[in-house]
Amino acid sequence: MFTNQDYMNKKAKSEIINREISWLFFNNRVLQESANPKVPLIERLKFLGIFSNNLDEFFRVRVATLQRMAEMKINAGLKKDNPEAVLKKISRHTSSLQAAVEANYREIKEQLKAEKIYIVDETELNDEQTAFVINYYDKQLEDAITPIMLSGSGKTFPEMQDARIYFFVKLKNSLKPADKKYALIEMPGSEYSRFLVLPQIDDKKYVMFLDDVIRLCLPQLFRSLPYDTFEMYTTKITRDSEMEIEAELGEGIVDKVSKGIKSRRYGSPLRFIFDSNMSDDMKKYFLKKIDFKKSGTIIPGGRYHNFKDLIGFPTLGRTDLVYQKTEGIENEIIKSFDSAIKAIESQDLFLHYPYYSFSQYVQLLREAAIDPDVKSIKITLYRMAHRSKVAKALIFAARNGKQVSAVIELRARFDEEHNIQWAQRMEEAGINITFGVEGLKIHSKLTLIKKKNGKRIAAVSTGNFHEGNAAVYTDFTLFTANPEITAELEKVFDFIHQPFQMTRYSHLLVSPQEMRKKLNQLIQNEIINAKKGLPAYILCKINHITDPKLIEKLYDAAGAGVKIKLLVRGQLSMVTTQPKLKGNIEIVGIVDKFLEHSRIFIFCNNNTEKYYISSADWMTRNLDQRIEVAIPVYDKKIQQELKNIVEYGLKDNVKARICDGTGENRYKTNDEPPFRSQNELMNHYIKLENENAEKLV
How far is CA 514 from CA 507, 622, 628, in A? Predict the structure, then answer.
């Protein structure tokens, strides 16, 4: 594990941490869960997978951007952190993290043995297991493997796809030592599991990496060639995957994004990970053939790469070694009405996923699709599920004669393909599709249902209208029929379609127009109250805080005596140990079963609190370069629920880490009884809905 002490020593006068370094701190918190003995063993493997997947995306996007900046001599804009210096820190830290990954994997593998679960390789099989593996290879796998021979004149090195596993094989003849050839084998695609479960022996369970199935069967794969000795080493490259899309978003946007997705697989290589047992001559040969840049990151690893596949490690029937599946509960008030629409018209309501079921949001859409009083549905879609129930409900509505308009963000990174496919299907069904606004990514999550009598109903969420995400991400959706709020949401849709008109909002905070300005005003109000000796505090739950101007404003507030308590999951550029902050900023980050994703802003306002939920993080891109919405919450009961979410997180002494800018990620501990916020919230909501059910009888 690494800390940021050397980095902080060099930047003693700095108040802001580079966002890339802060991201590594976050991913280190994920890695900590894989080493946590209190986490179920198979879940620990999954956290290794999440860490690996996160790191892949980090290199494909953030490191890619830094390398471009370095090549173009563009300064990163944060003090002395020029791109070259940051890239060196990233290389050093990721090498350290890779070593921790390998150590954690070895430890988990050993502990699984105590549970009679064995991860075995090709050298550890008995005769029956060997026969089983060879039969699997013969019947199911062999047709999916085609080696590319690399030796011989006129042979060019094949294009390697981003983040795919490749096996670099040396073939030798024991009778002719000088005779050798090289081959490259691509790991079969996602239609094959990375793991082969072998027949159980007594009460012992066995699992084998697909890599080792291929190793065992190399003699069979190359049986037509005169070689009897084989060396196989795993390699993987990470490529630049940040698409450059032309500014205009008119005709041809789908074609441009589609082309970008295809080119992504073959961007410039940024990171090379290899089996450290590979000989130097093989490594040099490989790097030369893929034209690897000196500024890239080279990481020696173990036998296996793409640990992200561990997310899908088989449970083997051992429910005690995984987290118990969460069954989302239902809002009893919505259930008590004949319709979701009538329930929302009666009062503001909420769903907090995954504690609550996403199905009640889908119920609202399906109901709107058949309600004769509903005239239109407008929605913004940032990420869409592969089998999106939301999209299907909208298509159903359009076929029933409703005016359906969907704003689909085609630049939702790594989900562009799903979005394009659904956009085409929805357009064919008669839905009016808008792909975006020039220069602005649409990140807000809005649904607006309009009735023939002019009344509106809205659902505004902190996360995507995506049933897959809703099972894993903690997001908060507010349902309201407040006429002032819904009228302003209509203005947001008008702005999307006519982005150059001036629009003012009395209730909403909207980027890029006014959110930054109004957040500054809300913070400044706390500063004024603190200086007057009045109550002044800010409570916030958010994913990322990296915007330098907003951070400086928070520093000013802390210096003036405003008590600031933050829950920050990911990137955090703040340093809370500075004396000038007077100990007035407390920040913790929670990594647990669910991915913390909701954004909640609470301002004291002299004890007349102001509450907002939002799609926006406090990053420059969210405040200045995206269409984002923060919606005020006026219902007192829902305000209390939002405060519970933040206070439960701050009280967490099981899964919370102290985020002070050092990168140490110390677990928050105290003498209080164990309090795990996600478990406590689930218990709280079950109790709340049971009470609601009793009242409604």
Answer: 11, 12, 10
Query: What's the Cα-to-Cα distance from 426 to each of 384, 404, 434, rounded to whole Å?
Result: 12, 10, 11
Q: What pTM, to 2 d.p., does this model score?
A: 0.89
Specify whether 443 is catalytic: yes
Q: How far is the C-alpha of 611 from the C-alpha of 631, rounded, in Å?
A: 8
Largest distance between two CA atoms of the chain: 90
pLDDT digits (tens, 9 = 90+) for 16-53: 999 999 999 999 999 999 999 999 999 999 999 999 99
Mean pLDDT on 258-287: 72
Residue type, 665: N
Whether omega before 483 lies within 30 degrees of 0, making that bond cis, reads: no
Host H or E run for residue 133: helix 127-136
Assess contact for 481 and 449: CB atoms under 8 A: no
Token duo for residue 584 = 């007035």
What type of residue sits at position 248? E
Query: What domains are there in the chain, each with its CATH number?
Result: 123-321 (3.30.1840.10), 332-497 (3.30.870.10), 509-696 (3.30.870.10)
Q: How many CA atoms lie within 13 A of 237 on its CB side?
A: 27
| CA separation for the pair 480, 608 (Å, rounded) | 21
Q: Which of 305, 352, 443, 597 is catalytic?
A: 443
| E strand or H helix at 9 | helix 5-10
